[in-house]
Write a structure and sequence with these properties.
The protein is mainly alpha-helical. The protein is built from twelve helices and five strands. The strands form two sheets. Strands 3-5-4 form a three-stranded antiparallel β-sheet. A two-stranded antiparallel sheet has the order 1-2. A hairpin with a 2-residue loop joins β1 and β2. It starts with a helix and ends with a helix.
């Protein structure tokens, strides 16, 4: 079986009260409530289980997870705060601590960044974001990153390309085409020919 799925399933059973530690005259044991566990019967894969768990979170926590997921498996808090709605950005430190306590995120050891504990959690969070909203978030990230000299052109272009459907201004579309051309040249210089071709096709 999938160890990550089993851990998530057992954790959800405990949170739902379907599985609980107890003590009898014979010693410590686990009590299983089949009726309470019935709601998890349809969760036959880790994505559906995580999706249901994320869907049950408070909206403000989901907002943080969804925006973080659009940034990547590891994300910097400056970017996350910049693309979150104002009220959620102000509460970001507390929200992150809650998500870490829930076992969905973990510290990287760098106070300026955080990461998902598993790529499946990130995938499940992305699954809660509507296509247009996801494009909007990617576009906001890309616009921010293209102005940051310390960012790789590949990172900025990847985000902008995911949000290109929402770019209406001709000038911005021309700028994006130029960035893709630049990324294509850099990829070719690194002998990443397949990536170079992909960027060139978008230029």
């Amino acid at each position: 079986g999938n160890p990550f799925f089993i851990r998530q399933l057992l954790g959800q059973l405990v949170r739902d009260g379907a599985l609980a530690a107890t003590r009898t005259s014979e010693g410590a044991c686990w009590r299983f409530d089949a009726d309470r566990a019935q709601s998890l019967a349809a969760a036959d894969n880790v994505l559906s289980l995580l999706g249901a768990r994320i869907g049950s979170l408070d909206r403000s926590l989901r907002q943080v997870l969804e925006h973080a997921a659009c940034i990547g498996p590891r994300f910097d808090l400056t970017t996350l705060a910049a693309v979150l709605p104002g009220a959620d950005a102000a509460e970001l430190p507390r929200r992150l601590q809650e998500l870490i306590a829930l076992g969905l995120l973990q510290s990287t050891g760098d106070p300026a960044s955080c990461q998902f504990i598993h790529e499946r959690i990130r995938e499940a969070a992305l699954g809660h974001v509507a296509d247009e909203e996801r494009a909007r978030i990617h576009l906001a990230i890309g616009r921010l990153w293209k102005e940051q000299s310390e960012r790789s052109v590949f990172d900025a272009v990847a985000q902008l390309n995911l949000g290109v459907a929402l770019v209406d201004a001709d000038q911005e579309r021309e700028q994006l085409a130029m960035l893709n051309a630049r990324a294509a040249r850099q990829a070719r210089s690194l002998t990443a020919y397949e990536a170079s071709l992909a960027y060139a096709e978008k230029a």
